[in-house]
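ok here's Protein tilB homolog:
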Amino acid sequence: MQTSSSSGLTTSNQKFLKFYSSYCSILRDAHNVPLVLPQNRGTLGQSWDPRLPFPLPSDSFKYLGWCDIEEHSVRGNQLLCPRVREGPSEEELFFRKEEYTLKRRKQVTDAEKWEKRMQENWENCAELNLSFQDLGDLYQVENLKRILHRLIRVEKLWLVDNSLTDLSAIRLPRCRELNVNKNHFTSFKQLPKVPQIQHLSLAENNITSLSGISDFRHTPLESLILKRNPCEFQERYRQLVFSNLPNLKILDGIPKLPEDCSPPEGLRRCLPSGSSGSIPH
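and the structure:
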């Protein structure tokens, strides 16, 4: 139970503020960064409460990936939802009048590049969520693709809402589950190569035609989601999908039904095992 103090703050709040202030001090000493509020910065447009400690010096770190923070040993395969979006280019920083952040950037040696590559350790990731990366510039998209090329062991991968248009040069040899909802794909040909895929989600893209879907015919694909794509309104949509993907069991969350097969050959495929194979009248 919380109790009020004479300052008007609860005792639990006081404990938190004491811890928070101590934490700020540790960061200040570790990075030798003065805890000074930037000009014209308040809390939600209000003046700063003098009873509270200064906020963390986020401006000094907001463009850093976890690999660039000193004195830690976190590996990429230990993170399920890492932020891999790179910071703005030098030109963009000047445009934003944030060139002061350039002082913290230094020339990276080949040895440091190799150390960072080992720390990222994407080759050993089995499950990874790279959704909502806010890839506003081409060099950021290329950095994401660089990472995807290294995912040789990933089995579950989420790339939701990244404005992706073409990953056809990417191969994910062990990927069984891929979610690329809310991107800008217009064709199945733009998807990565996923020979072991079992569950594929493509909802809310811009796939207008089923052309190229047969490329997944020889994969173990069992479940496919195409909701809110233009191809969903194609005549005999479900029948065409199932006829091209004989291993498919579920489309848009609905299991394969007898009427989803094109008669007469398709209807025979839908008959339960052990039946005579005759088509009912």
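+1. The helical segments are 11-31, 90-95, 110-120, 138-149, 237-244, 265-270.
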